[in-house]
Amino acid sequence: MISKQHLIDLLKKEFATTIKVMEAYPAEKLHFAPHERSSTTKKLLSTFVFEMYLLASHILGDVVDAATFKAYDPADLHALINDFKIESEKVIAGLKSMTDEDLDKTVTFAGRGFAADEFVMMMLHDQIHHRGQLSVYVRMAGGLVPSIYGPSADDTGTNL
């Protein structure tokens, strides 16, 4: 089991990095998709918000109506980023109030049981995966890819 404080610190760090990549995306190209079978950027970015809804529902016990996922249609990139910030802050605040026993409880997702802390890590890993996908979209849409775990070729002053 990961300690609650380590989990919170990790989420804060990774959420901040996700926001940085979201902010690097060219706002006017929200409907871009690199291939006909690929998600649009708007749909890909919505995944980050949906994962926060899933955490709020499964870990914090919040009631999240399934229709929320279908009805979610932010006006623009700024709204998406703002929604992610709000929802990720709610998750962090909720985790702070949980006990170690709460983090060890079993939650069911997609017909499978997970310890709550494992479910949080699974959602975080999925976010990191989609963030990598987004970094490719940023480059293809003409944006500058920010540093994620180290400098990128687009960082000013970096000679990669």
- Supply Rg: 16 Å
Cα separation of the termini: 38 Å
> What is the helix/strand order?
HHHHHEEH
Strand content: 5-15%
Describe this structure in words.
The chain has 160 residues and is mainly alpha-helical. The protein is 59% helix and 5% strand. The protein contains 6 helices and 2 strands, in the order αααααββα. It has helices at residues 4-24, 41-58, 67-71, 77-96, 100-104, 116-140, and strands spanning 106-109, 112-115. The chain has a two-stranded antiparallel ribbon with strand order 1-2. A hairpin with a 2-residue loop joins strand 1 and strand 2 (112-115). The radius of gyration is 16 Å and the shape is globular. It starts with a helix and ends in a 20-residue tail after the last helix.
How would you summarize the topology of this molecule?
Layout: H1 4-24, H2 41-58, H3 67-71, H4 77-96, H5 100-104, E1 106-109, E2 112-115, H6 116-140
Antiparallel strand pairs: 1-2
Helix pairs in contact: 1-4, 1-6, 2-4, 2-6
Short summary:
Helix content is 59%, strand content 5%. It has helices spanning 4-24, 41-58, 67-71, 77-96, 100-104, 116-140, and strands at 106-109, 112-115.
Features:
mainly alpha; 6 helices; 160 residues; 2 strands; single chain
